[in-house]
Amino acid sequence: ASNRIYRIAVIPGDGIGKETVPEGVRVLEAAAKKYGFELRPDHFDFASCDYYQRHGQMMPDDWKARIGGHDAIFFGAVGWPKVVPDHVSLWGSLILFRREFSQYVNLRPVRLMPGVPCPLVGRKPGDIDFYVVRENTEGEYSSVGGRMFQDTEREVVIQETVMSRTGVDRILKFAFDLAEARPKKHLTSATKSNGISITMPYWDERVEAMAKHYPGVRWDKYHIDILTANFVLHPDWFDVVVGSNLFGDILSDLGPACTGTIGIAPSGNINPERDFPSLFEPVHGSAPDIAGRGIANPIGQIWSAAMMLDHLGEPEAAAAIVRAIERVLAEQKLRTRDLGGAADTVACGKAVAEMLD
Ligand code: NAI
Ligand code: MG
């Protein structure tokens, strides 16, 4: 008997989430068999617009009790703007998970894969391989502020950035730990302390203090403007890039865009203390324009499954899934049509499961 038993809350959500999540689960089950751990998936129909249409809300009142005890959440995508406005569906589900489960790390790998045309000229697989670590709970995305003298000449709007020592230090610690565990041991901090003269110098100060605990990690910092330029011009310079909520948001879309397609990009919303389950999902949304046709690329979902296994303490199985993804992407007939291939969602998912070594 194995004590490597993982209870996973599986939530497909809307649109192509219903097509990609089963492929993720297929690959997870194949990995469990090969690597000798046990998966206990529980399937939930909430956090979807279908659920909203039946119940008038995105999730049941006791959602936290229903999934709070699981080891992780495996999520598809939420959103069906024709029936529920996006801010309602997003704030009624994903944002609640991130806040209430204290998933203060948003982690996105940026990696150029074989078979994916790179929009940056002359780059090949191996040239681009880094992580963006985004602070996911505070910073620029605060609810502190307000509007005064509305609809008059004196109209004033203010929104404050909130940086707490706890909030800044914990994201930096996660990023330095990650950098220390990687071969290059290199951390880059995104700042703007020349223009934003209170919070960003504070961020820099905390980076410097945290770096003292990691003598083996080489670190540098760039202002966000030149940093975005360097993502495009010198993506090979980076290993782990850490940023505040806003800067991390921008970098974590720009990074995957530099590697070709959002159809394959994965992400983790992580509570490193494991007080709550972490959530793993593809970067893409529910893609209403192609939903229901069985043609969605399942790789972003499957790669998210690999990140989840890494988090759960199964790094070998996780690495095997990423290798299998690389093999599948390298073969045109196994790729989905967004990558110029011929495979449908299920064929691509099955191919990854079969390629596991
Ligand atoms: P989207 O990512 O759903 O789609 C953008 C474009 O990329 C579409 O043309 C789509 O067909 C294509 N695409 C996306 N994923 C693909 C895949 N796996 N394979 C092949 N093609 C793929 O973004 P969009 O259209 O802005 O949003 C649609 C809905 O998804 C909205 O309701 C939005 O709020 C929601 N959304 C949810 C997210 C989440 O659950 N984390 C993230 C982003 C959007
Ligand atoms: Mg974004």
Helices and strands in order, then pairings?
Elements: E1 5-13, H1 17-35, E2 38-43, H2 49-55, H3 63-67, E3 72-77, H4 86-91, H5 94-100, E4 105-111, E5 129-135, E6 145-148, E7 156-159, H6 165-181, E8 186-191, H7 199-211, E9 218-223, H8 224-233, E10 240-243, H9 245-258, E11 266-270, E12 278-282, H10 299-312, H11 315-329, H12 345-355
Parallel strand pairs: 1-2, 1-3, 3-12, 5-10, 8-9, 8-10
Antiparallel strand pairs: 4-5, 4-11, 6-7, 11-12
Helix pairs in contact: 1-10, 1-11, 1-12, 6-7, 8-9, 10-11, 11-12
The structure holds 1,4-dihydronicotinamide adenine dinucleotide and magnesium ion.
The site of 1,4-dihydronicotinamide adenine dinucleotide (NAI) has 22 residues, from helix 4.
Question: Which terms summarize this structure?
Answer:
binds magnesium ion; Isopropylmalate Dehydrogenase; binds 1,4-dihydronicotinamide adenine dinucleotide; two-stranded antiparallel sheet
